[in-house]
Amino acid sequence: MAEEVLASDILIAPSVLPADFARLGEECIGLEKAGADRIHWDVMDGRFVPNLTFGPDVIASIRPLVSLPFEAHLMVEEPHELAPRYAEAGCELLTVHAEACPHLHRTLGAIRELGMEAGVALNPATPASAVAHVLDLCRLVLVMTVNPGWGGQSYIAAMESKVAEVRAMIDDGGHDVELEVDGGIGRSTIGAAAKAGAGVFVAGSAVFSDELGFNHAIGELREAAAQH
Ligand code: DX5
Ligand code: ZN
Q: Which pLDDT band holds residue 9 (cuts at 50, 70, 90)?
């Protein structure tokens, strides 16, 4: 039976996709001051998804400015090729898409050998069973609640059943694995995702569009997630 996610276990991982790239360092420092639990870097190669975003050098330039853990969400065609560069850039957690890894088990092992924690992301059409045989290698499973490539999209509520499925796989197998959701997470959607079993929440638009600032946005998200 899936266990309740406690308020104290809720982690907020702002995506810096919507950040002002002319002030990226200041924005990351602000997120740390506002109580974010980690920085979520949406890395896109223009092939796996149409958009093109952060190379390892950009992340490396921010690394000395904040002490928060960095999670790189690799929405790229050949993540195993790029993994060493994101390790060197200072990422503690590297999340690869199951859809981009014909040898997922080997890729996750390679990420761990580089000294990083490994995560697996599942696109909306990919079943939870895709991670059934690699949970022992994972620190995190990311259930995408939008189709990857852009921020500001609408939350796909149909993914809640997949979240619950992955939560049951983690709990029934006694795995120490975080369950993260990414895409369309805001005040009105985070509660349902938490109720389904998610414990880590990526939010871009909900954090950067809050007129009352990062503190308010992150506090509201934590509160809404805990109230589910
Ligand atoms: C999609 C990205 C986005 C981003 C968050 O490829 O992964 O989901 O992190 O976007 P928002 O929170 O704006 O939906
Ligand atoms: Zn992401």
A: confident
Parse the chain into domains and list their residue ranges.
Answer: 7-226
Token pair of 5, please?
A: 């996610």
* Cβ 221 under 6 angstroms from ligand 1: no
State the chain's mean pLDDT as an integer: 96
**Closest ligand by atom to 151 CA:** 1
pLDDT value of residue 1:
46
Which residue in 37, 42, 45, 210 is the catalytic one?
42
**Burial (0-12, 13-18, 19+ Cβ within 10 Å), 132:** exposed
CATH architecture for residues 7-226: Alpha-Beta Barrel (3.20)
Atom of ligand 1 nearest to the CA of 204: 12
Which ligand 1 atom is nearest residue 51's CA? 6
Give SS3 for 174: coil
For residues 58-82, average pLDDT: 98
